[in-house]
């Protein structure tokens, strides 16, 4: 009986470890995506804002500064 419990714990531990790694990968991917978006807005912000403000004039966009 104890042997079967020990043998069945191996796939359980591997599954939990794999699920943890996958979850951490998704979190890291989300953080990298957010950082890349922030860098793109910082680098091309004025250009993007002018284009967006031309398309949506009535909508105020707090992230855009009026030059």
What topology does this entry show?
Elements: H1 2-55
Brief summary of the model shown:
With 67 residues, the chain is mainly alpha-helical. 81% of the residues lie in helices and 0% in strands. The protein has one helix and no strands.
Protein architecture, described:
The protein has 67 residues and is mainly alpha-helical. Helices cover 81% and strands 0% of the residues. The relative contact order is 0.07. The model has no long low-confidence stretch (mean pLDDT 80).
From the alpha-carbon coordinates, what is the Rg to the nearest angstrom? Answer: 24 Å
Tell me the major beta sheet.
none
Proportion of residues in extended strands: under 5%
- What is the succession of H and E elements? H
General form: rod-shaped
Q: What is the residue-mean pLDDT, rounded to a whole number?
A: 80
Helix content: over 70%
Distance between the termini: 75 Å
Q: Quick one: how many beta strands? A: 0
* Poorly predicted ranges: none
Alpha-beta classification: mainly alpha
> How many helical stretches?
1
What are its keywords?
67 residues; 81% helix
């Amino acid at each position: 009986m104890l042997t079967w419990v020990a043998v069945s714990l191996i796939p359980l531990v591997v599954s939990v470890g794999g699920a943890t790694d996958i979850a951490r990968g998704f979190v890291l991917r989300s953080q990298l995506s957010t950082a890349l978006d922030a860098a793109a807005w910082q680098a091309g912000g004025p250009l993007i804002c002018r284009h967006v403000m031309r398309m949506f004039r009535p909508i105020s966009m707090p992230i855009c500064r009026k030059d």
